[in-house]
Design goal:
Strand order of the largest sheet of chain A: 1-2
Radius of gyration of chain B: 20 Å
Number of strands of chain B: 0
Structural class of chain A: mainly alpha
Number of helices of chain A: 22
Chains: A mainly alpha, B mainly alpha, C mainly alpha
Shape of chain B: flat
Strand content of chain B: under 5%
Radius of gyration of chain A: 25 Å
Shape of chain A: globular
Largest sheet of chain A: 2 strands, antiparallel
Largest sheet of chain B: none
Helix content of chain B: 55-70%
Distance between the termini of chain B: 57 Å
Order of helices and strands of chain A: HHHHHHHHHHHHHHHHHHHEHHEH
Oligomer: heterotrimer
Chain lengths: 689, 118, 213
């Protein structure tokens, strides 16, 4: 009836997951108790629960944990869960990413601590089986459920606004994408408390990930969670490529798009091109595990190396999918906060497209040591070195943008400068690793771990945090607290260097990755420094939580009334904060790069005579749709059932999801109209304020 | 997103309206060419029409030709003024397919040659 | 480049602004939908290329079991190919009928397309069943795993296409050939032609090359 799911799957014998569950439960109960004891319920009901004020609503759902309070569900359903508005979906992605950061980071601290203490005769506190699951979960969560949602969330929020249009090409599909990603996140979280996770590392190499060596549900959790969210991501790629290429404001030619939109285009082209490879690869491993096929098995003609090859054919473009939007954020931040246009827009675009194409020609550098000959290794080594060139060009462009600018040192700019230093170091170590003979020494060592954390933290995380600080006022109508923002930056910067510089040294000293026990006591001092670094980063995360809390509490002092808190250059700053559902009452007419800057300088919107109210027309906006949420719900059912071999439930889940899609695809009334009169009223109220 | 259907220079594969080449004639011509290419492929592979070591190349050329026939005659690719995006997307896709397939074959052949036989 | 009326952007009057460089404003829905689906098709082709690559790499790994030359029946493959090719033809004629708002002819061509597609699937299913019965199922060797997955995935796509066709014909029956339905038919025919393109790759690389070797 329940496949291979039994009570034994609940880890009563493993204290850590149970403590985690218990901890979360206690926190929720404590909050509810506090609210009751302080008599806050009437106030909450009157001022918040029944509020229809945009600002209050925007604030409330940042605190996702309180959602269990009754009375909020109808609102949540109507305004967020079934929303197809790219702004709301973007916010939900970012929330997902930040929440999963907490879990991914707890994994990190646990690993650092284990490595700091398990030296010589000491065994640490994590048995190997548990440690293996932790490093596998850490990588999977950080890549797929922190970095990807953060980056996709920022693109979701900003790209349509920057393009001067009202939404993406396929808004309902956008909702489906988000909820499928959330499905994957849910499944991976369920693996903490029901059953176990994969012990194979985040890449899931066979033959370890095959049935013969991983017979239990762990690898299946990994595969289904990532496969389902991968479909969501692929649909996002299709959506954004279409949006950027086919839906832009009139007059916005390709060379007048903001650079963030160019990097979003390149990133989404990579998603469209790379994620299908991952889908195919996981299909093959799933067929091996479920139906006894022999793609990657040790026997009957399987070829394990093909998995590694295909995985990294996806995996390398994946890291560029993550970093390109971060580059885009930094381009926007550099230009905005130095009060100058981006230096050499044209070469930025060329560099972005160059990186996009080249990222498909380097993937073998992830497995130089697997045994390919010198000619293959040399080709990919050279290509890997070449791909550093366009990135270098970008770094120079950012530098020259800042040079002689009137720089305003807000939090995003600190992240920019931190990124430029940190990412360059990370890139340099990458070019070092691109040399095959060096890689033969350093492959899978702590040096490698330090390198990729260097570029991911220094690049993607800093970029995501910069973007978060940069666009937060646009999304919620008030800026984030600067002091806490800067504090979080310094913690992230200092913490990163403390945590990972020792790993570079340790790698050169011979320490490999994924060690549950440290054989050489002379490594311990460095590992203790690394542990200190991890704690400092944790303080950075706490500072971010504090930043959010303080910002919400004191938001009245930092309201963004003009919609343009940073004296921005691109179109999104011409809307109110937050923008109305339709973004632009009249699509802007674009004549230059940095269209909003041009408008401010010339004193008028292009095409609109001064002082004349534009002729408003009826606007068709897409209706909300539960299709995304319901499809994802059945995807959870299907995924869980397949993991636990509950075949009847899996069939039910698949059929129900298919029926949902077909039902959603039947209707033609996908849009509702906002009349010109309503628009005029809203615009007058907004502009008059 | 405006919902209004207006004349637009842009074209997309398969769009039939305003499409001068979308006609019964174009589909029939495409069918005839594709049948020809298919028969030729079977003949090439089953007889000694081509020098045997050249047969794989011949098959690949014929396959590309037939795919081209499909793209032009059935999907109307390349037959409209502002077709650039469609061609570029196709070119990008073709590049990726080429890299994945030939890259994998080259890499795995190399690895198989260097690694212990299973 | 003066603007004739105040901000006529939402009615899409072309002002000659940056034609050909993408400055014409948001594209009409039909173009957006078709282009989006074209991008999706390309992503599907990339997925197939992953399966092709795996097949190519594993095609020699017969693990002492049967090879392609022993198993493939080229006469059936030729018939399958013709079925699918003709179904692409009838699909195209059906698309023309739909555009010209001729429901009768559209139903005829849709039915023909369905029958030809179903014939393709029937032959393929019998081929698979025959191979399994001979002990040459997908779990026999790496080569057979690659074969069944590549050809089988194509077959699953064809099956989905036929189910989708029934669903769309139902929409035509109920709602008529209106714009939204035509957009979906457009996507469907893109999908169907793309499947035929993939099949060209399959019969060439799997059957003809495999048999020749």
């Amino acid at each position: 009836m329940l496949g291979r799911l039994t009570w034994a799957a609940i880890p009563f014998d493993q204290p850590l997951p149970l403590y985690a569950m218990g901890g979360v439960g206690i926190v929720i109960l404590a909050v509810l108790a506090l609210v009751t004891v302080k008599g806050w319920w009437p106030y909450l009901w009157r001022e918040w629960i029944t509020s229809v004020d945009h600002k209050r609503i925007g604030v409330m759902y940042v605190i996702l944990g309180l959602v269990t309070v009754k009375g909020w569900w109808p609102y949540l359903w109507r305004e967020w869960i079934t929303s197809v508005d790219h702004k709301r979906i973007g916010v939900m992605y970012v929330i997902l990413g930040l929440v999963m950061l907490l879990r991914g980071y707890s994994d990190a601290i646990m690993m650092r601590t284990q490595q700091a203490i398990a030296v010589g005769n000491a065994q640490g506190y994590l048995p190997p089986d548990h440690y293996d699951q932790i490093f596998s979960a850490h990588g999977s969560i950080m890549i797929f459920f922190v970095a990807m949602p953060l980056v996709i969330g920022l693109m979701n929020f900003a790209v349509p606004l920057q393009l001067g249009v009202r939404d993406v090409a396929f808004p309902t599909l956008n909702s489906v994408s988000f909820w499928l990603t959330a499905t994957g996140a849910l499944l991976i979280n369920v693996s903490l408390v029901i059953g176990s996770f994969a012990r194979t590392g985040w890449m899931g190499y066979p033959p370890l990930s095959e049935l013969a060596f991983s017979p239990d549900e762990g690898v299946d959790y990994y595969l289904w969670s990532l496969q389902i969210s991968g479909i969501g991501t692929l649909l996002t790629g299709v959506n954004f490529v279409t949006t950027i290429l086919k839906l832009r404001a009139p007059g916005m030619t390709y060379m007048r798009m903001p650079v963030f939109c160019w990097t979003a285009l390149a990133s989404n082209l990579l998603i469209v091109a790379a994620f299908p490879i991952l889908t195919a690869t996981f299909v093959m491993l799933l067929l091996d595990r479920y139906l006894g096929f022999h793609f990657f098995t040790n026997d009957a003609g399987g070829n394990q190396m093909m998995y590694v090859n295909l995985f990294w054919a996806w995996g390398h473009p994946e890291v560029y999918i993550l970093i390109l939007p971060a580059f885009g954020v930094f381009s926007e931040v550099a230009a905005t906060f130095s009060g100058k246009g981006l230096f050499s827009y044209r070469s930025m675009v060329l560099a972005t497209l160059g990186i996009c194409i080249l990222s498909f020609m380097v993937w073998l550098h992830h497995f130089f040591t697997m045994g390919a000959g010198a000619d293959v290794n040399a080709f990919f080594g050279i290509m890997s070195a070449i791909i550093a060139v366009p990135t270098g060009a970008k770094v120079f462009n950012w530098l020259f943008t800042l040079y002689r600018g009137r720089i305003v040192f807000k939090t995003p700019v600190l992240f920019l400068v931190g990124f430029m230093v940190t990412f360059v170091i990370g890139g340099l170590t990458g070019v070092l690793l691109a040399v095959p003979p060096v890689d033969f020494v350093l492959h899978n060592s702590a040096f490698l771990v330090a390198h990729f954390h260097n570029v991911i933290i220094g690049g993607v995380v800093y970029g995501a945090l910069a973007g978060y600080n940069y666009w937060f006022p646009k999304a919620f109508g008030f800026t984030l607290d600067e002091w806490w923002g800067k504090a979080s930056f310094w913690c992230w910067l200092i913490g990163f260097y403390l945590a990972f510089t020792p790993l570079y040294v340790l790698g050169l000293m011979g320490m490999t990755r994924r060690l549950q026990h440290i054989p050489d006591p002379s490594w311990q001092p460095l590992l203790l420094v690394a542990e200190a670094g991890a704690i400092v980063i944790f303080c950075g995360i706490l500072c971010q939580i504090a930043q959010l809390y303080v910002s919400i509490r004191t938001r009245e002092q930092r309201l963004d009334l003009t919609g343009d808190p940073w004296n921005g250059r691109t179109l999104e700053w011409s809307t109110s904060s937050p923008p109305p559902a339709y973004n632009y009452a009249v699509l802007p007419r674009v004549e230059t790069i940095d269209a909003f800057w041009h408008k401010k300088r010339s004193g008028r919107a292009p095409g609109v005579p001064v002082g004349v109210e534009p002729a408003y027309e009826n606007i068709e906006m897409p209706r909300n749709s539960p299709a995304g949420f319901i499809t994802a719900f059945f995807a959870v059912v299907m995924g869980f059932a397949l993991i636990w071999h509950i075949w009847w439930m899996a069939i039910v889940g698949v059929l129900a999801a298919a029926v949902t899609v077909l039902a959603a695809g039947w209707s033609d009334e996908r849009e509702h109209e906002i009349s010109a009169a309503q628009i005029a009223q809203m615009e007058r109220a907004r502009l008059g304020a | 997103m405006d919902g209004s259907e207006r004349v637009f220079d842009d074209r997309t594969p398969g769009v039939e309206e305003h499409e001068p080449t979308a006609s019964v004639l174009s589909y029939t011509a495409g069918l005839a060419l594709a049948i020809l290419a298919t028969i030729l492929s079977f003949v090439v592979s089953q007889t000694h029409l081509l020098w045997p070591p050249g047969i794989p190349v011949g098959l690949i050329v014929l396959a590309f030709a037939q795919i081209g026939v499909h793209l032009v005659f059935f999907l109307h690719l390349g037959s409209a003024p502002d077709n650039t995006n469609n061609i570029l997307a196709l070119a990008f896709g073709v590049l990726i397919v080429f890299l994945v397939i030939t890259g994998s074959i080259w890499i795995i052949a190399n690895l198989n040659a260097n690694m212990m036989p299973m | 480049m003066t603007i004739a009326t105040i901000d006529t952007v939402s009615t899409g009057v072309r002002t000659g602004l940056a034609r050909g460089r993408g400055g014409g404003g948001p594209a009409p829905k039909r173009i957006v939908v078709a282009y989006g689906f074209w991008i999706f098709i390309l992503s599907d082709i990339v997925m197939f290329s992953g399966l092709f690559a795996a097949y190519a790499v594993l095609s020699g790994n017969t693990a002492g079991g049967p090879t392609g030359a022993e198993l493939f029946n080229l006469r059936n493959v030729f018939i399958e190919t013709m079925c699918l090719l003709f179904s692409s033809y009838t699909c195209g004629l059906g698309a023309l009928s739909a555009e010209r708002r001729q429901p009768g002819r559209f139903y005829l061509f849709a039915a023909l397309t369905f029958v030809l597609g179903a014939a393709f699937l029937f032959i393929e299913a019998s081929e698979f069943a025959g191979m399994v019965a001979k002990g040459a199922g997908p779990s026999r060797s790496g080569f057979l795993s690659g074969f069944f997955t590549l050809v089988g995935t194509h077959g699953v796509h064809v099956t989905s296409g036929l189910i989708w066709l029934i669903y769309l014909v139902a929409q035509v029956v109920v709602k008529g050939l209106r714009a939204a339905v035509l957009r979906r038919l457009l996507c469907w025919s893109l999908f169907w032609h793309a499947l035929d393109i993939v099949w060209v790759g399959v019969f060439t690389l799997v059957y003809l090359m495999g048999d020749f070797r």
